[in-house]
Amino acid sequence: MHLTEDFFVELKQQYSDEIKKSVIAFANTKGGTIYIGISDSGNIIGVENIDETILKVSNTIRDAIKPDITLFVDYLIEQIEGKDIVKVVVQKGTASPYYLSGKGIRPEGVFVRQGAASVPASETAILKMIKDTDGEKYENLRSINQDLTFEVAEKSFAERGVSFGASQKKTLKLMNEDGIYTNLGLLLSDQCIHTVKLAVFEGATKAIFKDRCEFSGSLLKQLNETYAFIDRYNRTRAEFEGLYRIDRRDYPIDALREALLNSLVHRDYSFSSSTLISIFDDRIEFVSIGGLVKGISFDDIMLGVSITRNEGLADVFYRLKLIEAYGTGMPKIMDSFKSYGIEPRVEVTDHAFKITLPNVNQKIAQENKHHHLSRHEQIVLKLLQEKESIVRKDVEKVLSLSQAMAVKILKGLVEKGAIRSIGKGRNTTYIAVDGRS
């Protein structure tokens, strides 16, 4: 009998700690057999101490490989040419990727069979194995990074009087039954790879930056830091009604809070793009990756129907009392603007969700300004409601005025802050201060 190494066969002259890599490779691929006591060239050497060798192999497999692969490994003794040989028969496991416990679910810890060799798996191959085993739902998949810490989460849970030990992590699905962290665990860990990017712009366009910031770490940390940043730009403006002073924020606090929570809880974390928040003089835009969850329509969301993309994450936020009840976010956002006679705008594409909150105080200020406009000025503003931008000739035509009078009206509207000019000379265009670009 002459054996040679191939896709399903590995030959070892004697026991070596490196055998664990071969076991992992077979378990991750299509199974195979490791012969101990046969040299690489196929010469039968034999094993002197069979029991000791089997004990070493079994201990190595039990202690060095995760998840537990012992049920998929058999140890047989076979005589070839009168010499004792140990056969380690490895079946394909049902919980791949299997990996070295000291290395984690990374290329240096995960091996696959390639020809007659056991080689490190690529990150793409690892992700495919995880999805094949755990399913497609991102938060339920095993995290590639298993070196996670939870300082922020532990503090947040403690502040709410909620336990956060190993058993709670399993109940909340931050960790599976084998003690392996899931992607939900990654999202709440201090090592979370996803971020929130914020930008503050001057005016109503993205032409001029005023401020920008990026928050990382645990989603709980990102939530708190992002809200604090936004709150700095949510100014309080005062006005008097008779003898009484009324203080009003630019944006209803409930709307800001719910829009931020929505952008974090419902986004699709299988994409690496950041959650984007843009603050303009007249609005705040929240853009998160991930369109509507399959089985739900735009109208359903506006009615408060909720199918959560990240059920585990929503459950954690619910337990921490960050969200009151499922499906209340969008109705609460819309309701908070009703008394002002304006509505937030919600836009959905196949891969993104955008909520735009209008600046209440600026809208009221613009309406007050417009009460003092001339009839010609009001006609020009009405024209800008129909068109994104206008030029001087548009005004001449709609009002049947001379060039000089058209210029005078446009200049007056700019000085009153009702419109804004872009460009110079003949190429000058005009947009409303709440226009989009």
Helices and strands, with pairings:
Blueprint: E1 9-12, H1 19-28, E2 32-36, H2 50-64, E3 65-66, E4 73-80, E5 83-90, E6 99-100, E7 111-114, E8 117-120, H3 123-134, H4 151-159, H5 166-171, H6 183-188, E9 196-201, E10 209-215, H7 219-232, E11 236-241, E12 244-249, H8 253-265, E13 275-279, E14 283-289, H9 298-303, H10 311-319, H11 329-335, E15 345-348, E16 352-358, H12 360-370, H13 375-386, H14 392-399, H15 403-415, E17 419-422, E18 429-432
Parallel strand pairs: 1-2, 9-13
Antiparallel strand pairs: 2-5, 3-6, 4-5, 7-8, 9-10, 11-12, 13-14, 14-16, 15-16, 17-18
Helix pairs in contact: 7-8, 8-11, 14-15
Describe it for me?
The protein has 437 residues and is α+β, with helices and mostly antiparallel strands. It has 3 domains: 9-125, Methyltransferase, Cobalt-precorrin-4 Transmethylase, Domain 2 (2-Layer Sandwich), CATH 3.30.950; 196-306 and 318-359, 2-Layer Sandwich (Heat Shock Protein 90), CATH 3.30.565.60; 372-432, Arc Repressor Mutant, subunit A (Orthogonal Bundle). The chain contains 15 helices and 18 strands. The strands form 6 sheets. It has a 6-stranded mixed sheet. Strand 13 and strand 14 form a beta hairpin. The chain is elongated, with a radius of gyration of 32 Å. It starts with 8 loop residues before the first strand and ends in a 5-residue tail after the last strand. 33% of the residues are buried. The mean pLDDT is 88.
Features of the shown structure:
four-stranded mixed sheet; single chain; Methyltransferase, Cobalt-precorrin-4 Transmethylase, Domain 2; Heat Shock Protein 90; six-stranded mixed sheet; Arc Repressor Mutant, subunit A; 3 domains; alpha+beta; 35% helix; 437 residues
